[in-house]
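Continuing the series of single-chain predictions for the mutant panel. This is the parent chain; the variants come on the following pages.
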Amino acid sequence: MKSAPTLEAFFSAPLDACVTTPWGLVWCSGSGRCGVSVFGVFDRKRVTAFFETLARLDLHPALGPHVSIVDFRGVTYTDLPAMDFFLATLRRHLPRFAKRVTRRLLILPTGALAIAFGGIYFQVPRLYPVRFGTDLVRNLRWLQVPRRDPLVAWLERRRAERSGRDVVLQRAVDALDEGATTVAACAKAAGLSTRSFQRALEQRGTRFSALRQQVRLDRARVLLGNSTHSIAEVADACGFASQQHLTTVFRVAFGDTPAAFRRAAGANL
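Parent structure:
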């Protein structure tokens, strides 16, 4: 798949091409399969850019009826106002999407980010076949994409690259997001023995405890910005020993306390 230097260059010849944007990855495999992956903070500005791009892609004259993959697993943070705006914008675009999209797979985040994305399940009108999942491979049959299609490995590799992690780290983070708490469980998810997994982490300059703490901090940040749980409840839900423990670690990582972060995010509902 050739890489276009800009979004405009991509849309001038989208077939079997891809382009990296500040907020994600846009790709097209032939005239029958295309998709968008979103990375980083998903705020109102990026929601707007996402829908503008998705509409241009789905309605591009070079594409016929096609299946679409929209992957939100790379999102690191969003908030309820941004998701409300997302749903309102989606409802406006759906009739246009239904003209060309035969099937759409929405791959949603796990862990705390699932709270922010949860409303999509119930509020999206079904004008064309849509499936929600947290894993690409498990939904390939529904998409009518062969499991060994090179596109699958390419998408997972690009996701790992964009997140700043290789495949081993990405699989471990996914396992932690889905509730794993031990090094053995994450090693299994990465397809390695426990010792090989620990060596792999050391080679990448980290340890399991540091990786687990980062995932817990990311989860705490999402809960602080998207729920009315007390800080003590957030600490407990994310695996910290106490509210003070969360506050100490949070300040070191982000330079602010959980309470200050919540106030800045406007989420003290």
